[in-house]
Write a structure and sequence with these properties.
With 97 residues, the protein is mostly helical. The protein is built from four helices and no strands. The protein has one domain.
Amino acid sequence: MNKPVEVDGGCQFFKDLENSEGNVNMGYWNLICTKRDLSMYVKHNMKPHRGWKVSQVKKYFGIKGTGKNLLNRFLVLYNVTMEAMDDQKKKAKATEK
């Protein structure tokens, strides 16, 4: 079982997740792209692009840590968020019927 992860509730990620303007939610998009980018950075020591900084990831998602610890904390946040979004979709489908 995963330990609770300390996250800054006022970070930009949660603001973007609540604001669903446009076709794709910006928080959801950034969550998916960051999973790819952070995994590549930690596992292969490879930046996704020249301007990418791990400090921007920490600030945007409101998490702390370095290396594998940071990736593990991010993945807990990722999994919790994805489960919550799946539950939200199921509730929306149930109310449509």
